[in-house]
Target: Kinesin-like protein
Amino acid sequence: PHHSGSKQTYWSLIMVVLMDPGEDPEDTLRAHRSREKTFIFDTVFDQHASQEDVYCITTQHLVGDVISGYNTTVFAYGPSGAGKTHTMLGVDSEPGIYLKTLTDLFRAIEETRDTEYSVSMSYLEIYNEMIRDLLNPSSGFLDLREDSRGSIQITGITEVSTSNAQEIMQLLTRGNRQRTQEPTATNRTSSRSHAVLQVTVRQQSRGSDLVEEVHVGKLFMVDLAGSERASQAQNHGKRMQEGAHINRSLLALGNCINALSEKGSRAQYVNFRDSKLTRLLKDALGGNSRTVMIAHVSPASTSFEESRTTLLYAHRAKSIKTRVKRNLLTVSHHIAQYTGVISDLRREIQRLESQIERREEEKRSDAGVRAAQGTPRTGQIRAQLVRAFKEQLELRHSLVELENASIELHMDASRHLLTLADWEHETTHHHTPDSTPERDEEQVAAHADGDTGKSAESHEEALAREEVNMLLAEQRKIVALKVGRGAGHAGLEQRLASARKKASQLEELLPRQAFSEDQREVLRLLCRTHELELENTELQASSLRREHLLCQKDCVIQRYHQHRQLCEHVIQGQRQLIHGKAVLPATQRLGLSVVIFWKDRRHQLPAIQPCPPSLPVTCIAPRGYEQRVCVRSTQHTQPVRCLAFAHLPV
Ligand SMILES: Nc1ncnc2c1ncn2[C@@H]1O[C@H](COP(=O)(O)OP(=O)(O)OP(=O)(O)O)[C@@H](O)[C@H]1O
Model:
């Protein structure tokens, strides 16, 4: 029942009862074999639901999500002729979800001030496992590719930017006319392909001077081809072949839905690669997307089987859990800024060069000042001077790029080290409370033997360490490129210094007497440009350094936080011992319980290692650790309950 008291109708139906048409209510003997089934969904619409009702309840809430940078998907699923295209595209008098969503999206964007948005859309169909651009059908079949981040791209697809709802409806209707439609036994205008309308919303806001934040929200609206039973569809030849393709991709979709809905209870391999449709909907199905599935069924008794399979699919799809995260891209401005400075300077040089040329031509035509013109040698020197200046610019550009790469590498390495530290913290945390003296002794012995504890080290940790080593090696290479590798391998810095020297030598070579005032002016301008460029570069470098410092400070804060947690954990343990809450193993009760911090040389993080209770205690720091506290005691005749040493890093 729906209440139409207000302007908007609210639907509170959530149950579908699928009744078996072959069932005789009088036949009590077959009652227990009834195929009647009840399904519960988030919402159910009956034949009275308007396009507005369906849109408001299923899709409207996704508009805000897309604007905030989330991936969202709506797809219409169901047998042929059940009304999928009607729901998604609709007709001019009753437009469907496509147009209503886009209208709301543009309205929401218009209402938001101070933020820059750009919206683009593409419309494609998957017909017989081939992708066609519905906005530019003459472009042939397009390729589907997965980029390095795992997101799906369609190469060469037309992206249209428009905010006019009318224009969009025209585009979509025109696009839909290009869609492969054929009359079938079940639908006069049956869509023989899957249609996908993709809307991308980019929201740009300047977070700081250096880093720009970009939220990219994607909305997929999918009108699937109708599933059909070959026997009922009575299709032949081409139609049958299409039907087979449609059914195959829908089967692949069904398999994915099955596998995904069973995830969690038991591990399942989800094969998205079986069809273009599932590859395209990968994120929408089980990844980073808020997804709405609108299942369509016909109330006709002749459609009982289709309705049953559709409802079963939809029911399974309901249990799929996706992991949604906001798509945030941070665009580094470092390189852009430096490149900006350099191209400004290039423009300046060009201006100076044309000025020189212009002046020279003016002088050539002016016979009176011919004497003041430089000799051919002067012209050569001047050309060399400009070349030297250009060389300096190129070198500076390369240096800036190297600096940026080095910083990125450093930050990557820091992140890896923090993860490793976390891992170490976790393992220690894990080992300490339930460590037995025997195990502790084994561990220390293993460390003493020079074993770094590789057996205990997980494969992931080994990989992470390898990655850190690679990053550090890369960093060393960059340093070598910058400062050089001894004789014969001059670094960029050295080359820049010699280019500077060369330029000043050339300036010295210019014959002073033959200098016209114009030439002097040109050189003065060149010098000024040099100075400005230097100032600029220095400013950029210092802001880069500042940001790097902030980043480093973040890392340090995080490290201290981890360290504090570790200390709290130790203190808590010791308190428990003091108050007698924790029971020590018999051997330990008579011995010395010592907690020692070792300082990790590589990333300056403390590692906690309980010592064996047997006395005397000799602590050997594991390889890679710097020993900060060493406890040696032979004095304990009395049982010592607890001693704790905590050596905090400076
Ligand atoms: N709720 C509705 N109100 C009015 N007409 C409808 C409704 N649903 C469907 N129709 C009409 O029924 C016919 C079939 O619907 P539609 O083409 O949307 O089905 P479909 O599921 O997309 O089929 P196929 O998978 O074969 O493409 C169309 O003429 C459509 O206008």
Observations:
- The chain has a mean pLDDT of 67.
